[in-house]
Amino acid sequence: MQPSLNVDEVLEKIVAKDPRYTREAYFFVREALDYTQKIALKSTKGEFRHVTGQELLGGIRQFALEQFGPMTLTVLDEWGVRRCEDFGELVFNMVDNSLLGKTETDSREDFKGGYDFEEAFRRPFLPKSRLRVAEPDAKPASS
């Protein structure tokens, strides 16, 4: 029988091996996964199911905005997380160290092309006046 994992010790080893991300980033991803699974449980009327990388990215976005509001980009940047692919790296660092599980079809590729961080984390807090798209002047082409 394998002894239970000490999460703090495992994270210490992960951060020592891959210092791109802080311990806080790993704890956040774990909490965001729990948050996303709760959302998935509601949609399946209480039936547990695996969440995909894209679903996790959506849950991470919602959870981050709820937790950090307009400071989300700053917090993520402080943790070394600057794009959706970074979330994939965090997840798979935890998978590789038995802190998370995966299916045969899960891969780091699932986190590519998720969303633009500026759009996802800054735009919700911009004043409405800054959200209007400036229309180009409608000038007739000269002949």
Question: What does this protein structure show overall?
Answer:
This protein has seven helices and no strands. Helix 2 (23-43) packs across helix 3 and helix 2 packs across helix 5. Residues 134-143 have low confidence and may be disordered. With 143 residues, the chain is an all-alpha fold. It has helices spanning 7-17, 23-43, 53-68, 72-78, 84-96, 117-122, 128-131.
Quick structural gist:
With 143 residues, this protein is mainly alpha-helical. The chain contains seven helices and no strands.
Mean pLDDT: 88
How many independent structural domains?
1
Indicate the percent of residues in helices: 40-55%
Tell how many strands the DSSP assignment holds.
Answer: 0
Proportion of strand residues: under 5%
Low-pLDDT regions: 134-143
Give me the number of helical elements.
7
Largest sheet: none
User: Based on helices, strands and strand pairing, what is the structural class?
Assistant: mainly alpha
Shape: globular
Rg from Cα: 19 Å
First-to-last CA distance = 82 Å
Spell the H/E element sequence.
Answer: HHHHHHH
